[in-house]
Amino acid sequence: MNTPPLTLRLQIDEDPLQLDAGRWDALLAQSAQPTPFMRLAFLRALQRSGSACAATGWEARFLSVWDGDQLMGACPAYLKSHSWGEYVFDWAWAEAYHRHGLHYYPKLLVAVPFTPVPGSRLLARTPAARQALIDGLRQLALREQASSAHVLFGDDSDQAALCAAGWLPRQQVQFHWQGNGQPCSFADFLASLQREKRKKIQQEQRRVREAGVSFRAPRGSDISSADWDFFYRCYQLTYRAHHSKPYLSRDFFAQMQAEMPEHWLMFIAEREGQPVAASLLALDPARRSAFGRYWGATEAIPCLHFDACYYQPLAWCLAQGWLRFEGGAQGEHKMARGLLPVGTQSAHWLAHPQFRDAVADFLAQEGQAMQNYVNELEQHQPFKPASTSKT
Predict the structure, then answer these.
(1) CATH number of 180-322
(2) What is the block-wise mean pLDDT of the chain (391 residues), using blocks of 10 residues?
(3) The organism sits in which domain of life (predicted)?
């Protein structure tokens, strides 16, 4: 497949193992919003571990753009036979296709599987290379007879180029804490909150302490195989409680331990010397950002979830002088705990003209509703009027 300008060549790989990690990660390092989840080692581990592969409905179609032997652009793309593990919901679109006797699946997706973390998706050295990726996605969707193509949680450069090419924009909201880069204590953070919010957090932490629970926080290579085993047991229990199966296999986390240890921080809750819960954070040391990912517990302890997933990570980020903590997708309850609304974005191309028009109308209405929602959230700031979120 060739795409303008003529000097650029588009390549499609069904196995990310065929790609060169050094070249891919060099592209990522030059992107506007790099994250560890777009490293090729992370994407490869998802496939090699059987977590995101053809058997689970994620058929790899990684795109790369070349000028001779120089890699100019790349993105992780998948043919999807379902919409699980994406966190940008299009189930209603699929149902509408079905009601009209049309197939919504397969669809083409550019995303990091199971990872709703905003960041660069169309890795490109030049605007021409980014445009080549966009053109290539459309061509690939048509070739594979996909109903549509989607780029989820991209950066501003991705979104601008996609919208300029006629893709439909969609807005959502997450809740992030942002710091000023100066170390401070969790007590200082609490002091910046409104009284009722501060008292609620203090009460919740007190209940955890009164239950006899303490935390340790191994990081990187200090996270032992036994710690990973216990965490995975907790992770499985969380899914079991929701009557579902985990997306990620134990082998995936073994590969993370072996290949990307510097990007992980684990909080392990213990009582009487025995672990009872664990939460896992991904780290981006270069940008001093932390990302809440997974959690689980072997027994029900009041308020332990909030402490393990929000208060302990926030205290760690504050003490380290880090700049950002992202608590994951959805959840306005996070706002009372100091995580403020932040817009995220996606872009969508649909092959069927009438459905494209219908989705465009829907997204326009949804976008206005989302803006109204954010405006309403802004009226419920958890911080004192003299404070900011950047404690």
Answers:
(1) 3.40.630.30
(2) 67 94 97 97 97 97 96 98 96 96 97 97 97 98 98 98 98 94 95 95 97 98 98 96 93 98 98 97 97 96 96 97 90 89 96 97 96 90 73 52
(3) Bacteria
